[in-house]
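Input record (one chain):
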Amino acid sequence: MTRISRAIAGVAAVAIAGCASPPDTGDPKPARPAVEENDAAPLARADKSARAVDTVAATPAEVESELRELFGAADLASLSEKLETAADTPSWDIPITINSAVERWLEYFQNDGRENFEIYLIRAGRYEPMMRAMFRDAGLPEDLVYMSLIESGFSPRAYSRARAVGLWQFIASTGRRYDLGISYWVDERRDPILATKAAVAHLTDLYEEFNSWYLAAAAYNAGPTRVRRSIRRSGSEDFWTLAQRRYLRRETRNYVPKLIAAALMAKQPEKYGFTGFEPHAPMAYEVVEVPDATSLDVVAKAAGVEAAAVAQLNPQILRGVTPPGERYQVRVPPGTSQDFATNYAAVPPSERVTWVLHVVRRGDTLGEIGQAYGVSVASIRAANKNVRPRRLRVGQRLVIPRAGRIPRYNSTTVTARTRSSRRATTPQRPDGPYVTYKVLSGDSLWTIARQYAGVTTRDLMRWNGLRSSRIYPGDEVRIYTDESQ
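The corresponding structure, as predicted from the sequence alone:
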């Protein structure tokens, strides 16, 4: 065999092998880091003599002649077609098994689920590049991003009946386990960056336990306890065995086939008839820091962009305003952070917050609340979609649009939240020293009184003009420490 023949035969063998379907070897382990440049030096030295033999380049005519001699004219055309097909065929780094369960999902996504799947493909453009980078940096299969497709359709605002939230559909307990903050003001399960970071950590833990991406995915859906129980009862660690024997719930039995079908279609949409759609541009942003309780519309105005653009980059901010009591980092569109810094510095502090929180007290009505803040009932209802004017609950929280105005009372003191005249009396305050106590969650007048010698619940009610002993977090209670003075 000539020098060219040896080279061509080797290339052809590798190409043909690449065109063939590989056997199913089970679930792959996380990808190993790329070899550093210096690590390749021993291999280069070991192969030096072999490479020195074939140093003369062959001409195109010589290559074609050798190929025809090796494969024949007809086979040459077939080989060329296989090489071209192999170059255009995507690969996957999660295990791909084709069976009847997967085929059913492929059929569903192409028919009944077609409209939604196309929406998911469009949204993927915004989040998939960021997700792939985070999985790659963690050494995990990048195609795990398609779990977000089947979990949420790549929507950070997705919400399920099980109260799972965000791109990765975390329930509250799992979200908090992976350091996602959840409060009245912020839900980081909706944060694309932080939620993906949590998903990477969660999937790493699941793979380390089950040593199978199919079982890790099943545990992500059903919880690791259910999967452990199924393995123990069945005596098998094969997902398909667990599914066939129905040791897993129906939703979980469908989860892995659905993931495989989504991965197959999302990487080659044209093959399955999805054409003519334009994916969203990849998520891009800069970060600015603002003081506490800053409205996103104020941030947008200072940055010179639409409020919707800032809201889209910060879906974790639930009330349109950053959390009170802490500085907060807000994402703004690329190229706007400098304008923001300049313009925001010129905004008076009284105009930096255009929303305020109101906690409903006994006797409150939307009309009274609106009058106190100088806003219409319609504005309050628009800002609180689920509010029922005739069914306000004591302790219910309402977001009040302020349009930069200071309300006639402060929302953190006893007098701040429109205490009804039916509850309030004129305070009877003796002369002398006193302390102001800010009520915390779980406090009561009785527990506060016990902290001060000689003070009773009745004293606190009399000193603060209260007809009821009910108090709320954020209230301020005046306490006279020595009434004789």
